[in-house]
Amino acid sequence: MAISEKKIYPRTGDKETVYLKSIVTDPAIIIDEFTIYNDFVNDPRDFARNNVLYQYPINHDKLIIGKFCSIACGAKFLFNSANHTQTSLSTYPFPIFFEEWDLEIKDVSTAWDNKGDIVIGNDVWIGYEAAIMAGVTIGDGAIIGTRAVVTKDVPPYTIVGGVPAKPIRKRFSDETISLLLELKWWNWPIERISQNIEAIKTGRLDKMK
Hints:
This protein has 209 residues and is α/β, with parallel strands linked by helices. It has helices at 20-23, 47-51, 174-183, 190-195, 197-202; strands at residues 17-19, 29-31, 36-38, 52-53, 63-65, 70-71, 76-78, 118-120, 125-126, 131-133, 137-138, 143-144, 149-150, 158-161, 166-170.
């Protein structure tokens, strides 16, 4: 049993939820299997255009999302070109308008601070209209609250919320988190995941096999 990369919709008759791996073709956006996006406002197939913002080729920055993630409507990933450099005396992006100010085109990217890629782990839930900023890494099993603005890395299995997002609590004990990170069930063969669905759904780590 394996998911077809051509399968777009996980549920029959539901056109609001898509498997992102099946619809995103931009090589700068790397998405693994079973990660879903739901959008009840726009066509979810337009995820790359509507939700991945300011990701310009000049930066070579990437959005990397693992397996079994759930991304809610309106979640945004804001890349480096959304920034205005703070090393300048002005926040005005003079290098972008190089022709107007007789500047070198090769210096366009100095208009912003480059903080790096956005990396989302596995089994991450990103809530409604949350915003993830450039350079952020979100650990496996984390939960990002509704309309949170994530400016810093989020540890595995941690719930964060607010503006800027701050830790609310861990989902499990440190011992359980360590075991889950060791198990990495999302990398199991599909058949093994299927055999353990009930244990996963009911939170019975002791029944995982």
